[in-house]
Amino acid sequence: MSTNIVEIATFKLANGVTEADFLIQNEHFMAYVKTQPGLLYRSVSKHSETGVYTDIVYWNTLEDAKRVQEAFEHEQVCQQFAAVIDKESLSLTLTEVVAQTPCSE
């Protein structure tokens, strides 16, 4: 039995990038991610006081998560998404799900 993976990224926007700029790139990236095998769920939220974004992605397996992480090296849509993020503020963690409720629409 495989264990679902939660990918948690926190970051601020790169200097000069507006939230509107980010949301445009996020839409392109989301369209790409939605085509990837193993995607279960993704959401992006923002802390109103600190401006820190939290990007949470649920993956079916660790291999699914790592495949998309590796795509940042060669997929243009991933590189364009990365360009709007302040690299020094980025924190990325992969965790294993130990308990969950069913997803619902």
What does this structure look like?
This protein is of the alpha+beta class and 105 residues long. The protein has a single domain (5-96), classed as Alpha-Beta Plaits, CATH 3.30.70.100. 32% of the residues lie in helices and 27% in strands. It has three helices and four strands, in the order βαββααβ. A four-stranded antiparallel sheet has the order 2-3-1-4. A hairpin with a 6-residue loop joins strand 2 (39-46) and strand 3. The longest helix has 16 residues, at 19-34. It is globular, with a radius of gyration of 14 Å. The model has no long low-confidence stretch (mean pLDDT 94).
Features:
105 residues; Dimeric_a/b-barrel; Alpha-Beta Plaits; ABM domain-containing protein; alpha+beta; 4 strands
Count of all domains: 1
Name the quaternary structure.
Answer: single chain
CATH architecture: 2-Layer Sandwich
> What percentage of residues falls in helices of 4 or more residues?
25-40%
| CATH classification class | Alpha Beta
Helix and strand composition category: alpha+beta
Order of helices and strands: EHEEHHE
- Mean pLDDT reading: 94
> Given the C-alpha coordinates, what overall shape results?
globular
In the predicted model, the low-confidence regions spanning at least 5 consecutive residues are none
Cα(first) to Cα(last) distance is 25 Å
- Strand content bin: 25-35%
> Care to count the β-strands?
4
Strand order within the widest beta sheet: 2-3-1-4
Biggest beta sheet attributes: 4 strands, antiparallel
Count every helix, treating DSSP H or I runs of 4 or more residues as helices. Answer: 3
Radius of gyration (Å): 14 Å
